[in-house]
Each structure stands twice: as C-alpha cells, then as structure tokens.
Design goal:
By secondary structure, the protein is α/β, with parallel strands linked by helices. The protein contains 7 helices and 9 strands; from the N terminus they run E-E-E-H-E-H-E-H-H-H-E-H-E-H-E-E. The protein binds adenosine-5'-triphosphate and magnesium ion (MG).
C-alpha cells in the first residue's frame, strides 16, 4: 500500500450558476501522507472547503480522480478513517453536547463512550458544557464541540475546516496546540483549512490556494 492516505490526480471541480462558471479547483494534484500535518491557506472563495469535501468523499470531482490508497475501500472511510469538522454549524440540535461527540463512537459500535467523549471535550476546554444543548452554547463553543466530535474516534485522517474561525486569538491558539498534540498521540493525520497565519505557522506543511490553484509546500 502507498503511504499516501489521499491522492488527487488533476482534479477539477466547477460550479455553474446561471451564466457564471466558478472553478473551485483547477487541475489539482496533491497527496497527504501518513501522520502529515497540513495547513491549507487561501483567501475566501479560493477552494479550501471544496478541497476538504473531496478529501472526505463528501463531494466528487468533475474531472480527475481522488483515491485513498493508504486507507482502502471508499465505503469504509467515515467515521473510522476520515472525520470532518465543518466550517458551518453541524451539531445535532436534539442531542446534548456530549451525546453529539459520542455519535461517531456509537456508529462504530464502541462501548464505554462516555470516557472518550469527556476527554475530547476536556481537551478543548468545554467539558463543563457537556449536558447543554447546541442552542444553549456560543458559536465558538459549538465549533469546539464539533472538533471534539471529529477527534473522538481517533480517525486516520482528520479534516478541520476553519476550526478557529469563531474563536478569539488566545482560545484559538490553545485549541490548535491541543489538536496537534492529540493528533501526534493518536497517530492521526491532520489537514486544517485556515485564514489565520498564526494558526498555519504551527503546521510543518503549508499549502496555499488561490482561485482554485493549489501550491503545496513544506516550511
Ligand atoms: N454550491 C456552490 N455553488 C456555486 N458555487 C460554489 C458552491 N460552493 C462553492 N462555490 C464556489 O467555489 C469557490 C470555492 O469555494 P470554497 O467554499 O471551496 O472556498 P473557501 O476557500 O473554503 O472559502 P472561505 O474561506 O470563504 O470558506 C467559490 O468561488 C465559491 O463561490
Ligand atoms: Mg471554506
């Protein structure tokens, strides 16, 4: 097996709205290898969320291919191998914060889910909110809960889309530090889309997107 967890071969994704064509990704080729920690930077609309959605198999290319050589069959990707914390709010409103975080573990049929979910929440500084419902917490707290849900099953590849977008600088830095430490302990590979250069500076690999073009690089 290749050590590339996910590989893009000349991937193009475009949207047609009326007479407009927006190229979210233009012939992008890249790969993410095991235990790599990658920050994807770029202006608003440059294609970061599209890139992550394709990595998670939540979207499909118009041209080119996405494959997961280091993981295996596509059908078994989520939530064991690939998990996502989305840019937009994504918690289930009828579940408490802790129950939300436990969803991937229940899908995987794990028992004793309470300890793991509490540890993930604690790691992100929101364990005290475990019995609240999503409508009873702030946007930044909900974002951290969604990140805890993505972390809890220790996936092979964790994709986080703007995980600090709604956080103040100090809280955001703390979340990123804890996320990176957790990934190192869990042996997980991380891809984080961010606008924040301070967040990106914590990652050894920094990729840049511009109008659907991707430049990969290593600091
Ligand atoms: N469902 C859609 N329909 C039409 N155009 C879309 C759609 N989703 C994305 N796009 C377009 O694709 C391009 C890339 O969008 P994408 O969401 O990947 O950018 P982004 O880098 O994540 O931006 P942001 O930093 O604002 O989150 C943009 O020009 C956007 O307008
Ligand atoms: Mg985005």
């Amino acid at each position: 097996m290749s050590d590339a967890l996910v590989q893009f071969n000349d991937v193009t994704r475009h949207y047609i709205v009326g007479n407009d064509v927006a190229f979210a990704l233009k012939e992008v080729s890249c790969s993410v290898t095991e235990r790599q920690h990658v920050a994807v930077m770029g202006a608003s609309g440059s294609g970061k969320s599209t890139l992550l959605a394709l990595m998670a198999d939540l979207d499909v290319p118009d041209f080119g291919t996405v494959i997961w050589p280091g993981i295996g069959e596509k059908t078994s990707l989520r939530p064991k191998h690939v998990s996502v914390s989305f840019q937009a709010p994504s918690l289930l409103p009828s579940l408490t914060i802790q129950q939300n975080v436990e969803v991937p573990l229940l899908v995987l049929g794990e028992d004793r889910v309470g300890n793991s979910s509490l540890r993930a929440l604690d790691r992100l500084g929101i364990a005290h909110l475990r019995d609240r419902y999503p409508e009873q917490i702030s946007g930044g707290q909900a974002q951290r809960a969604a990140l805890a849900r993505a972390m809890v099953a220790k996936p092979t590849l964790l994709l986080a889309d703007e995980p600090t977008g709604q956080l103040d600088q100090e809280t955001g830095q703390g979340v990123i530090k804890n996320l990176i430490e957790w990934a190192a302990e869990a042996g997980s590979t991380l891809v984080v889309a961010t606008h924040d250069p301070q967040v990106a500076s914590k990652f050894p690999n920094q990729w840049r997107m511009s109008f659907g073009d991707l430049k990969t690089g290593v600091l």
